[in-house]
Amino acid sequence: xxxxxxxxxxxxxxxxxxxxxxxxxxxxxxxxxxEAGDFLAMVxxxxxxxPMSQVLGYRxxxxxxxxxxxxxxxxxxxxxxxxxxxxxxxxxxxxDLGTGSGCILLSLLAERDDAYGVGADLSDAALDVAKxxxxxxxxxxxxxxxxSDWFAEVTGTFDLIVSNPPYIALDExxxxxxxxxxxxxxxxxxxxxxxxxxxxxxxxxxPAHLAPGGRLIVEIGPTxxxxxxxxxxxxxxIDVQVQQDFDGRDxxxxxxxxx
Length: 259
Fold this sequence. Notes:
Strand order of the largest sheet: 5-4-3-6-7-9-8
Number of strands: 9
Shape: globular
Structural class: alpha/beta
Helix content: 25-40%
Distance between the termini: 68 Å
CATH topology of the largest domain: Rossmann fold
């Protein structure tokens, strides 16, 4: 079977599974494999709606490639908005709550050689992935990772706290694409409630962990800006701002600890 035959067969299988743009995805899989048996095995996984990042084992995010498994949320381009927002100001000590793959924390530390930080996550499996990504980017001792239920095991103060918490409401879960709903870690997607539970904890606890003038920056769902901005203001944070993603949707809420 020629390469063209394999690509056509792969694209046909993906199309039957309802994969958008099956020809592009078949070419992507072939470029990453190049062997007929491996290619068709990966096509079969993708046809089961396993996310492409899990099939390939990686996702390119911001300026780097990150290892991705089913233990972590798939890094998304929308989250790059948070990284860009954080890099608009100076910081030295960073806390990333719900770090997952570590893509946010490690992207920030890779851009600032003098910065160091803590990645906290409740999942041991996610922390293992974050540690692998840290090693791959040669971040070294500037990044440490702790198992923690939000702030529970976190000590000290930071001049930047970032988070992409689970913000999908329980009643929205059934409407997600199967790649997300079936294969990404549920605890990284939803709070099993109204989608705002994590923000209540993060906003309420941030002042105790922010240095004077430090900033809190979180990713949000497109309809949550007003609610999260109010939480930050109620917690005593100032200069609350909302930033949009590349598609013009509200994506990030940021605020500052008074000096």
